[in-house]
Amino acid sequence: MRALDAGILVCGECHQLEYLREGEEQHCARCGAHLHIRRPNSLARTWALLITAAILYIPANLLPIMTVNFLGSGMPATIMEGVIELIQADMLPIALVVFVASVLVPTFKLVGIASLLYSVQRRQPMSARQRILMYRFIEWIGRWSMLDIFVIAILVALVNFGNLASIEAGLGAAAFCLVVILTMLAAVTFDPRLIWDNTFDAEDDGDAD
What we know:
Blueprint: E1 8-10, E2 17-19, H1 42-62, E3 66-70, E4 73-77, H2 79-88, H3 92-122, H4 128-141, H5 147-158, E5 165-169, H6 171-189, H7 193-208
Helix pairs in contact: 1-3, 1-6, 2-3, 3-4, 3-6
């Protein structure tokens, strides 16, 4: 049973519970926020953010993410080139961390959110429990996507010794940062209650048959 079936609304800002009053606009008694049965245009907004992130994911991987200058010379490197260089330098643990945070995590988030949206809209054969576990995992893992950006920002700030040694961030880093931010926003704009709505609607259709 859903809270909506009991005539209860949840404030999206402070999580205050309010009884639904049909035919009138409601505001939260605690914080004054406008109450909605479900987040307005949740699926459309999430799709828009996700598609934009997927488009930016291409330059994020193809453009140089940073350039390491040593003694006046340096070669820009993409994410995968940086991982390969770390492996060649016998720094496998660091290479693994960079690969997971910069390649696997963003890819999983893009595919995972797209799967949730598609399954909710098309009523695909995925249980509500599987969907909600995937959603929670996407929310939890999202913070680790920024690890690579934090490392680059710290290196750019600390390693600045003129012609001796310096590190410069590339356009790939900016694109990758936007991908991370957009996927985090996509996870926020997606209303997980739609998962349960879809489940209950499917059960109702089954009973009707």
